[in-house]
Write a structure and sequence with these properties.
By secondary structure, this protein is an alpha/beta fold. It has one domain: Rossmann fold (3-Layer(aba) Sandwich), CATH 3.40.50. It is built from nine helices and eight strands. The strands form two sheets. The protein has a five-stranded parallel sheet with strand order 2-6-1-7-8, with helices on both faces. A three-stranded antiparallel sheet has the order 3-4-5, covered by helices on one side. Strand 3 and strand 4 form a beta hairpin. It is globular. Bound molecules: 2'-deoxycytidine-5'-monophosphate (DC). 2'-deoxycytidine-5'-monophosphate binds next to helix 2, helix 4 and helix 8.
């Protein structure tokens, strides 16, 4: 059996992680661990229950009833398929809100570490994607990549995703959302998005001028080089 290992991919909003990481996992025949989905699912649970995503007390109360799982490409919240629902912008900002809470992060990190431990023990490659996968969740990950791009380019990409879903938004509003979520994710007290990723051992890839295909090729070349 080949040896399993972890590839951590972190970065700000719409840096391409969400397309690059699952494709990379498929190419390597590995498991795609989308950690943002877990925070988005908890935000959705709050929305469904009419709880504000900023209401720390209520969120800690419902935390024991939060159950989500991955199945193939599907994401399930309490057995309901929410794969498409959690792509909406209300769950994105809500996820950033619930991710500020210490108790929430502890629970999510434990689940993520449990999932990865079992898979790595089975000899699988885990591609973990989020904000803190290379710092808090898997500090000893074999590879750590930090994907980034200029804010206006990321906002443009996010707007295209929104339009692809048949929704409408103004570019300036999307840009404002991107910047405010980045600020909240980077400035929170617990396990923030790295401000000096290189200093924290990440390989930084600014893909402002790169296609997704080029980004994946760069990552695979780097992994192959280091593994040989
Ligand atoms: O990657 P994403 O856009 O789906 O993440 C949504 C939000 O969830 C993000 O703005 C912050 C939070 N998040 C987090 O706090 N930690 C992670 N490891 C992943 C996501």
């Amino acid at each position: 059996m080949s040896k399993g290992f972890i590839i951590a991919i972190d970065g700000p909003v719409a840096a391409g992680k969400g397309t690059v990481a699952p494709l990379l996992a498929k190419k390597l025949n590995g498991f795609y661990l989308y950690t943002g989905a877990m925070y988005r699912c908890l935000a959705l649970l709050c929305i469904e229950k009419g709880i504000s995503t900023k209401d720390k007390k209520q969120i800690i109360k419902i935390l024991p009833f939060f159950k989500m799982h991955f199945n193939g490409d599907g994401i399930f919240l309490n057995s309901k398929d929410v794969t498409e629902r959690i792509k909406k912008e209300d769950t994105a900002m809500g996820a950033s809100d619930v991710g500020l809470i210490k108790e929430v992060r502890e629970k999510m990190v434990n689940i993520q570490q449990d999932i990865a431990r079992d898979l790595v023990n089975e000899g699988k490659i885990v591609v973990a994607e989020g904000r803190d996968t290379g710092t808090k969740v898997f500090p000893n990950a074999e590879f750590k990549f930090f994907l980034t791009a200029q804010a206006r380019i990321r906002a443009r990409r996010r707007l295209l995703q929104i339009e692809d879903r048949g929704d409408k938004k103004e570019f300036d509003d999307v840009l404002r959302d991107v910047i405010s979520r980045d600020e909240q994710d980077s400035n929170r007290e617990i396990d923030p998005l790295a401000k000096d990723p290189q200093g924290l051992g990440y390989i930084v890839l600014d893909n402002s001028e790169m296609s997704e295909k080029e980004t994946i090729e760069k990552i695979i070349r780097r992994i192959k080089n280091d593994k040989n």
